[in-house]
Amino acid sequence: MAKNPIYVEIPIKSEMDKLWRVTQTPDEHEKWDLRFSSITYLPKQDDKPQLFTYKTNIGFGLAIKGWGKSIGTHDADAKDGSKTSSLHFGTKQKLSLIKEGRGYWKYNPQPNGTIQFLTQYQYSTNWGKVGNLIDLFFRPMMGWATALSFDVARRWLETGETPSVQYVRFFSTWLIAILFFIVWTYHGLVPKILFMHPTEVSMTTGALPISESQAIWLNYVVGAGEIIIGLSWLFYPKKEHLLKLQLIVFPLLALSAAIAEPANLIHPFNPLTFNFALVVFSAIGLLVSKDVPTAKNCKRKPD
């Protein structure tokens, strides 16, 4: 079955020379493109494609190294002022899922002063049927990484915020989101639903005039609610709403726990210090999560 090529498009407010420089100069390109850790141009021969090598670090000290050929038409006199760069790339490493591919970048000036920057590329895979199966998940990830990288390049040119700062904010936001997913889901699932810890029950009966059996059922409900909140950290797009809510909720939880069971305040990892730490993380998250780059700003299918 034929695989759809990866397509990404984004409008960028920039001069053509600047956009061409940050996308065609290796030292600039590798700053914003998640797909490459380093790009090195080889000496160019007249009337020959620009040859280069690339490396992509994949973790645990491993890296994919490959080759590429690029042909750009920055000086071409297209009637509409557009520019094009074609690309042929590949690697001989069996470790790489991608075997060989071809694509292009296109730079189309628009009447509103922006440049329609787009790419489309296709690649073949290693590892036979296993590689084709893995590619069902890998290909969307490559499209997402391309789109996120394009948005980072756009923000760099339009606002001056460097790619490294953008990626620090992006990955910090998601690390904090994963932290709160684990905290909420764990505290809803383990001490309330799976094991119903006695302390959870005693704090509930201490705070509310209800029986122990009623407190147990209430904790099941609260536990389910905490799991839903935890899952929202993965799927709800506007993380700043959740962070602002937590700046209110965590102090209230600490206060209610202290009122219900004052003796808990002298325990290690008690509700006061635990919730205070979560308040600090929420505040940090609110500071770094504003206007982070996103793949959603890119168009993913051609007209």
From TrEMBL:
Membrane spanning stretches: 174-195, 215-235, 242-260, 272-289
Pfam families recorded: DoxX_3 (PF13781)
InterPro entries: DoxX-like
Coiled coil regions in record: none
Keywords recorded for this protein, A-Z: Membrane, Transmembrane, Transmembrane helix
Name listed for the protein in its UniProt record: DoxX-like family protein
